[in-house]
Known about the structure:
Elements: H1 2-31, H2 35-43, H3 49-66, H4 69-82, H5 87-139, E1 150-164, E2 169-187, E3 190-204, E4 212-222, E5 230-241, E6 250-266, E7 269-278, E8 282-283, E9 290-305, E10 308-323, E11 326-341
Antiparallel strand pairs: 1-2, 1-11, 2-3, 3-4, 4-5, 5-6, 6-7, 6-8, 7-9, 9-10, 10-11
Helix pairs in contact: 1-2, 2-3, 2-4, 3-4, 4-5
Protein name: Outer membrane protein beta-barrel domain-containing protein
Signal peptide: 1-20
Keywords: Signal
Amino acid sequence: MKKISSFFLLSVISVVSLFAQDFTELETALKNEDSDGLLTVLENSGSYSEKFEQRILDVAAELIMKGNVDLAADYTETVLLFDMDNKKAQEMYTAIEKARKDKIKEQQEAAVVAEKKKVEEKARRLQEYKFSVAEYYRSLRKVSYRNFPVEIGLIPLAFDYEASSFTETDSFLRYGFGGEVKAAFVHPGIKFDLNLDYVYSPVMISSEEGGKGEFNLRAAVTSPVFPVPLSLSAGYRNRTVKSNASLYKSISSPLIGIGVNDFELMPDFFLTAFFDLDLASSMSDSMQDFAFGAEVDFKYIFRIKPMLGIYVAEKNRFNAFFIGHESESYLDCLFSAGIVLNGR
């Protein structure tokens, strides 16, 4: 009798021990979100499979409540892979699929609403911008300090590219720096502005030639009334180089030009472009047959206050002159930044 009792006790202990080991493996797989591990535990669970299936489904239900539908679906699929006839797992999987579809539908509807709000916000900002432009020009009908915008900036980066067939120089590159000032008078029907900058380029990048200094002055009259602000300009340019690769060591010339001035491509982003005829009135040698120039500038203003901002700009200038079949050309790329007062 004692032997039978001992055997029965050992059997119970063994079964409990195996159950505890399998249950520990089950909990470990659940903790690690390991669906393959759960399936292995179920396949080895023997008579405890129903309890283990129920435990997995209970955890899946908790995951659904927490919003983790995908992991709950993985756990439910694992139970169905082991026991396709589990009614509760079938019902839960059907509910999960419905929840997934509802979630996708909600996300799609939310995306449509968000896009609609985005379009409405863009339209509202554009309307506010148009109103602010109209208000700005209306405010200028009575002359005050607001009619006189000013821009003051530094040119920390300037690159000068030069090529000349007169001296058989293919090209060379300089680096320089400088400063710029722009002052204007703005009225609802007309705008006068004066632009001045100076760039000194002492650093040679691609040759042993000398440096360069260049002064540019442009006065322009523009009408803001037209959709594209056409502008007429006149100016003066002085360029002095210390180089044997240039035909002229110094060129001083008046300019006349036509173009667009501060054309607002989008809010606070401006384009200026001019084509200039270089009159080349003063040179050290014989007169040129023809000379011209072109300038394309881009500027963006970061608004701090309605009448105060910080601008960044990139300017590109090209000048060339011809004598017979020979030519000399210059390309300048300037990067500048500064403050804007009373401007928009």
